[in-house]
Amino acid sequence: MFISTRCRIKGFTLKKLPWAKSSSTRFVSTEPLNASTITKPDGIFSYSPLSSRTYIRIRGPDTVKFLNGLVTSKLLPHFIKKNLTTVEESEIATEKGTKKADPIVPVPEFDARLGNWGLYNETGIQGPYISRFGLYSAFLNGKGKLVTDTIIYPIPAKLTGQVPDYPEYLLEFHENVVDKILHVLQTHKLTSKIKFEKTDHASLKTWDVEVQFPNLPKDMENPWFDNLLDPMTLPKNSVDANNFAINVLESLFNSDPRILGVYVERRTESISRHDSTFPQSFRLVTSEQVDDLSKLFNFNVFDFPFQVNKKVPAQIREIRFQKGLVDSTEDYKPETLLPLELNFDFLPNAISTNKGCYVGQELTARTYATGILRKRLVPVKLDNYQFLDTDSEKKYAEIHIDAVEEKGLAENEPAPNPFANKAPVRIKRKQRPAGLLIANERQYGVALLRIEHFSSAFSSDEPVGFYITTANGENVKVTPQTPFWFRDWKSNDSLRK
């Protein structure tokens, strides 16, 4: 089980949970189950290799300070000079429908230049925390547009033996943007005491993983929260963070030394918190020697049968789009979108509103402060998707709304002139697109939808027609799906008014 320390971290003891069924054997197959002959398995382990990912390795005493000035996440602590015994009741954040949150506890001051201590995360269930798991973040250009998102991995995933002198990380990118980021790093390096280089593409492998328990009652508490998602946000120092990482890797992956970095998906917590069957996702970076990730997973920590599915990246991409998420410049064009348009403000620790200056900060901070944002990314379902142009170099496809539903776009008709010999000329105003299709994988996609259409798309009893007209004149029906953050956005929006 996970080591309990000053943070009182809970143990990862899945065998002892009430839903863990006793079984002396486990079912492992790479083929889908036949529902007519076999009942649904208690556990499903799905994985997929990602061959398009490339990494930049960065290390040195100034690494954290350097990255903090380039990415949207807050990587350096802001130390709170407050008596921790005087936290007011109003300062204790609570979430509707869950137990009261713990008081906010700051991370004690430490020297971020020394030691391979992990990553600072700004927000957890008890405030900021230290972690050895990856962090989802992004690089912006000077105008606040997204150059690329990234995952920052502390490496190695766990420390054994002597601690290295300085912080060290892997930065994950799609291969089509890594050279641009290398140029950005070189431009900003100046006198910073850091070293960085692109890793050999063949030396590392990237894997997407999902673990699901489909037979759990949907209304019960998701076991991943008590066993992983909540306790991983508790460590306040590097020792606790490393102990927790050691025990996670031992419990789930038999402490395999070929695992170099681990990212635990937290972006969809608002879904999984209310659905115990929602799969928990991971991303793993391994050495090139790993050919089958399922052989690294410790199925014996679960006392019930498992089905193993090896998927192709396109299947994982479909699942990601159903959640309304993008992942790397494979899904969008660099420098065309704002981070808040991609809902970074609803993703844990993906963007900071109080970290101070970083590249692209001015527009981002102003947009967040004023609340003036005209479009947001939402999941969509597409009918007749096969008619869409697959040329990724072209502009995003425009999404329109049925004219009868569009308000304020009626034809402009001049006032009648009693001296005119002709009937007045009707001037038709060009219809403004309701949104843009950013990317799709078959019938599932993500679209930038104008906020003015949210009520008709997500709250109206009568369906509204959204569509894309292709260059060949074919219509593709677009059906927006309610995003996981919509309830929180609606609450925040009502407070601003």
Describe the structure.
The protein has 497 residues and is of the alpha+beta class. The chain has helices at residues 63-68, 178-189, 223-229, 238-253, 269-272, 313-323, 361-370, 454-459, 486-496, and strands spanning 43-50, 53-59, 119-121, 129-131, 135-140, 146-154, 168-174, 195-198, 204-212, 259-264, 280-287, 306-310, 375-382, 397-401, 435-441, 444-450, 466-469, 475-480. The chain folds into two domains: 1-332, no CATH class; 374-496, no CATH class. Helix content is 17%, strand content 23%. The strands form four sheets. Strands 13-16-15-14-17-18 form a six-stranded antiparallel barrel. It has a five-stranded mixed sheet with strand order 10-11-9-1-12, with no helix packed on it. A five-stranded antiparallel sheet has the order 5-6-7-2-8, covered by helices on one side. A hairpin with a 7-residue loop joins strand 3 and strand 4 (129-131). The two termini are 48 Å apart. Belongs to the GcvT family. CAF17/IBA57 subfamily. Its main location: mitochondrion.
In spatial order, strands of the major sheet run 13-16-15-14-17-18
Q: Enumerate the spans where pLDDT stays under 50 for 5 or more consecutive residues.
A: 1-38, 79-99, 404-412
Radius of gyration: 25 Å
Summed up, the domain count is 2
Main beta-sheet strand count, sense and barrel state: 6 strands, antiparallel, barrel
Helix content: 10-25%
Look at the helices and sheets and give the structural class.
alpha+beta
Strand content: 15-25%
Total number of beta strands = 18
Mean pLDDT: 85
Give the end-to-end Cα distance, rounded to a whole number of Å. 48 Å
Instruction: Encode the helix/strand succession as letters.
Output: EEHEEEEEHEEHHEHEEHHEEEEHEEH
Inertia-based shape: globular
> Count of helices?
9
